[in-house]
Amino acid sequence: MTHQQDQRSPVVLITGAAHRLGATMARHLHQRGWRVLIHCRSRRAQADALAQELNRQREGSATTLAADLADLTQVEALAQQAVDQWGRLDALINNASEFFPTPVGEASVDDWSRLLHTNLRAPFFLLQGCQAALTATRGAVINLIDIYSERPLADHPLYCASKAGLAALTRSWANDLGPAIRVNGVSPGAILWPDQDDGYRPNDDNDGNPANDDSDYRQGILRQTPLGRTGTPEDIAGAVAYLLCDAPFVTGQILSVDGGRSLSL
């Protein structure tokens, strides 16, 4: 691809793209010709390494932007930086998320702020800051939801509320922003087990939450999954790419990519 061609390539901002699902989405869309804005909070070294990897494949096609999504000022600055980087924005993927238990009676105001601000407030104001640019390109938004937005996970009321709110935003935005902007969601099932390196804080009693080393819990999830296995990050990236690139008449939908597990919840 020539430099001139790359200047016409679509641009996507992916939050939480330094590793795991976000990094896989970045690689997948980059392979399809997109320029990628890789957002991170604290994983700057990983984000920079990913950008360098992608830029070796296609010069000037990836860059990193750092922001704490729990800080509204930084969210607003991130939106402006994303639009300014290449002068256009064709897609926003709200992937970054906080995930930890908040049992009733134990949750703090700080827990509320971290979960609701990162998982719900940030996507709202990030979209608001990017709306004009997305309208100009007739762009699209993808929100990463969760099957627990509909069927709550025990001891995670704030996380579940944040994802249920994001599902509602997905449908509201699709209704309000069409026809200029399409908005859809992807709701993963068991893809990658969370771990403490990702900021997950399991309960002290090791009660079988997904992040704990509880193989019985994990096997139980797989027994509830008709396909009988975990998915892969590529499954999610493929679903995101379909909604962004191959579904021009789809908006307001939340696609479950969960091996059928939502059928038994």
Automatic annotation (TrEMBL):
<keyword id="KW-0560">Oxidoreductase</keyword>
<dbReference type="InterPro" id="IPR036291">
    <property type="entry name" value="NAD(P)-bd_dom_sf"/>
</dbReference>
<dbReference type="GO" id="GO:0047040">
    <property type="term" value="F:pteridine reductase activity"/>
</dbReference>
<dbReference type="Pfam" id="PF13561">
    <property type="entry name" value="adh_short_C2"/>
</dbReference>
<comment type="similarity">
    <text>Belongs to the short-chain dehydrogenases/reductases (SDR) family.</text>
</comment>
<dbReference type="InterPro" id="IPR002347">
    <property type="entry name" value="SDR_fam"/>
</dbReference>
<feature type="region of interest" description="Disordered">
    <location>
        <begin position="194"/>
        <end position="218"/>
    </location>
</feature>
<dbReference type="InterPro" id="IPR020904">
    <property type="entry name" value="Sc_DH/Rdtase_CS"/>
</dbReference>
<protein>
    <submittedName>
        <fullName>Pteridine reductase</fullName>
        <ecNumber>1.5.1.33</ecNumber>
    </submittedName>
</protein>
